[in-house]
Design goal:
The complex is a heterodimer of chains A (330) and B (343). With 330 residues, chain A is mainly alpha-helical. Chain A has 13 helices and four strands. Chain A has a single domain, classed as ABC transporter involved in vitamin B12 uptake, BtuC. Chain B is α/β, with parallel strands linked by helices. Chain B has twelve helices and twelve strands. In chain B, helix 4 links the parallel strand 3 and strand 4. Classes of the chains: A mainly alpha (330), B alpha/beta (343).
């Protein structure tokens, strides 16, 4: 009897651990068989290039979600911080390098604003960031008068140039993911972030500086959002009002697809964020290759997000049972 | 004591009502013709251009028709619920007419009904109501004829070259009536003329990032494509980046040039046409739209008959080719900045 349970557990446990990899593999196989130009280096290069800004922003979102919180203003932080850089370049003649440093500082500052309200004023993170989602974008619209601001050629070049055949922003995104994964897995800060997601009260009793750790995750997410914003702006070659719009929700969907639980305390930057973001981009790319009905895109995206969220909720519910059976088995 | 507080509250409420009612009446007695404008957003310069052109046209033509225009303007920041509340605010201010560019053509119907219940005429601008409530007038560009104009010029160009085009269609937001009409037009022309085939349709939801990734993917999937039809060229910078990724951002006459045909002729696209990268466009004429809008406002204000077709007051775009661009007047994407500076 125990063996039967153990057998069931193996499949369930495998799906629990690697379900998101199975989904991505399924997507790749399906589109490779259906679209002749899908499975090629050039296409995957373009695909990761398109996904690069989201990879960085989703990694920032992941750190907040690890603590059991949520920040739905990251797209607006990406927008506002890059607006400031664009205005500095266009209206005040700042060189791109200086402007981008200001963008990064502002990204961190806007993250700190969210963190301050959530951590020190004890306002619900969803309410807080729902407010700043609108407010930050509004400030950006005022700053730019809602006009698109075209980037200097050197910025455009960053968005389209390659090193070793791979787009420069892809290298940057992968480098950041590796660094963030290291921070997450191998530093005291990373471990404290995960601990927070498993229970703040316990962390307090253990002497972890809960407020400081949480505040830092908001700053980190804001900082990474501004990097994602710069990448997006460089790719398109201008600052537009669409920059970052809805990106926070795509980021949430991506991290859930990558096996990071919205309930906090579970998941990894690598491969989780990478797989989640690539799965979403693979689907969009594959539908383009298939020449799919344009009305299908939203349905497919919505369906995948729904399935991912449901799977996350199911996992959270069954986790206890699996651990229990695993204990019996051992 | 309770009674006293109650009486004071009653006096306060009644007097507040009188003050507000008196204020509204005073506004009407001023002889102003108050137009309540509900924009869905202001995130593209075209909307500011519409607004500026409209106000100047109204100031120029209102007095001659006995109308002293005043505009109350609000913006919904792309939120249909906010837009409904904004329109309700305009109704409460008892404006003489409401003009709205709907964020959601399916949601605007209830606002039209509310305005009509209050006896206020309603003009739907640029995006049609997709409900039974159509408003008193529709004013806007003719998305279908615009798309058709560009597509027919594309077909003609391809026939002259003696080739059957393999075209990528870059679509707009499929909840936007104009985007749907432009798509319908190009597909009809493709079938009627046989001059080109739509090899794939790329949906963008009007998001430049999706223009970039969509065109990049489409060129990867269909490397044989030799023409691109853009439902709008407002995201030209993203289009340029996608073409550069494939080494196909080439001028007319250069090897590898993709024939580019667009709708709207936004400022970046205008520069691209002047530089030799954009072959065909049909304008979305902000100036002519505003002019038509003021004509309808004057007709409503003076009680004149609204004389236009059953589809509304539709303003067609003008076909622009690199060789005709220089000689054309009132191209807003070229002339609006100078016009605002000279005001």
């Amino acid at each position: 009897m125990n063996k039967v349970i153990a057998g069931k557990l193996d499949i369930k446990g495998f799906l629990f651990k690697y379900g998101f990899l199975v989904i991505m593999a399924g997507v790749v196989i399906f589109f490779s068989l259906s679209a002749p130009h899908f499975l090629s280096f050039t296409n995957f290069n373009s695909l990761i290039h398109a996904a690069a800004p989201l990879l960085v922003i989703a990694a920032g979102m992941a750190f907040i979600v690890f603590t059991g919180k949520l920040d739905i203003s990251l797209g607006s932080i990406a927008y506002l911080s890059t607006c400031i850089g664009a205005v500095l370049m266009k209206n005040h003649g700042f060189p791109p390098s200086v402007s981008f440093v200001v963008v990064l500082l502002f990204g961190a500052l806007l993250g700190a604003v969210n963190g301050f309200i959530v951590v020190f004023l004890k306002v619900n993170p969803l309410i807080t960031t729902l407010g700043t989602l609108t407010a930050f974008r509004g400030i950006g619209l005022i700053l730019t008068q809602s006009y698109e601001i075209r980037m200097p050629e050197i910025v455009r070049a960053f968005g389209t140039s390659r090193i070793g055949g791979v787009f420069m922003d892809v290298w940057l995104a992968l480098f950041l993911l590796i660094v963030l994964n290291f921070i997450h897995r191998h530093t005291a800060f990373g471990k404290q972030v995960m601990a927070l997601g498993n229970g703040e009260d316990v962390c307090r009793r253990l002497g972890i500086r809960v407020n400081l750790v949480m505040f830092t995750t908001f700053i980190l997410a804001g900082f990474l959002s501004s990097i994602g914003g710069i990448m997006s702006m460089a790719q398109i070659g201008e600052s537009t009002t669409f920059l970052g719009k809805g990106m926070e929700f795509t980021a949430v969907a991506a991290i859930v697809l990558g096996g990071i639980s919205l309930f906090g305390g579970e998941g990894r930057i690598l491969p989780g964020v990478l797989i989640g973001v690539l799965t979403l981009e693979l689907i969009r790319n594959g539908l383009n290759h298939l020449g799919a009905n344009p009305y299908l895109y939203e349905f497919v995206n919505g369906g995948i997000i729904f399935i991912a969220m449901s799977a996350d909720a199911l996992k959270a519910r069954l986790r206890g049972q699996v651990i229990l059976v695993a204990d019996e088995d051992t | 004591m309770k009674k006293l507080v109650g009486v004071l509250m009653l006096i306060l409420i009644v007097s507040t009502g009188v003050v507000f009612a008196g204020g509204q009446q005073e506004q009407k007695d001023d002889g102003k013709f108050v137009v309540g404008v509900s924009w869905d957003e202001k995130s593209i310069p075209l909307i500011q251009a519409w607004e500026d052109y409209m106000i100047v046209e109204a100031e120029a033509n209102g007095p001659g028709n006995g109308l002293d225009f005043e505009f109350i303007i609000n913006v919904a920041d792309l939120d249909p619920t906010r837009q409904a509340a904004n329109i309700e605010d305009l109704i409460q201010q008892d404006v003489d007419v409401i003009l709205a560019r709907a964020k959601d053509g399916a949601a605007i119907g209830s606002s039209i009904r509310a305005a009509h219940d209050a006896g206020i005429p309603f003009i739907v601008f640029d995006r049609k109501s997709l409900t039974e409530e159509q408003g008193d007038a529709y004013v806007g560009g003719d998305g279908y004829s615009q798309g058709r104009s560009t597509a027919e010029a594309l077909a003609s160009m391809l026939k002259d070259k003696g080739i059957t085009g393999q075209c990528i269609e870059v679509m707009g937001d499929l909840k936007d009536n104009n985007a749907v009409l432009r798509s319908q037009a190009v597909n009809e022309v493709a079938k009627e003329t046989g001059a080109f085939e739509i090899v794939t349709q790329v949906p963008t939801e009007w998001d430049p990032q999706k223009f970039l990734s969509g065109i990049t993917n489409a060129l990867q999937a269909y490397p044989e494509a030799d023409c691109i039809y853009l439902a709008s060229d407002f995201a030209w910078s993203a289009v340029q980046a996608a073409l550069e990724t494939h080494g196909r951002y080439k001028k007319v006459g250069e090897e590898g040039h993709i024939i580019m045909a667009s709708c709207d002729l936004f400022p970046d696209a205008l520069v691209a046409m002047e530089g030799g990268y954009l072959d065909i466009s049909t304008t979305w004429d902000a100036y002519l739209h505003a002019k038509a809008l003021v004509e309808v406002l004057i007709a409503i204000g003076t009680g004149a008959d609204l004389d236009y077709g059953e589809d509304g007051y539709l303003v067609p775009g003008r076909l622009v080719l690199p060789e005709t661009l220089g000689a054309m007047d009132n191209i807003w994407s070229r002339d609006y900045a100078d016009w605002t500076n000279s005001k």
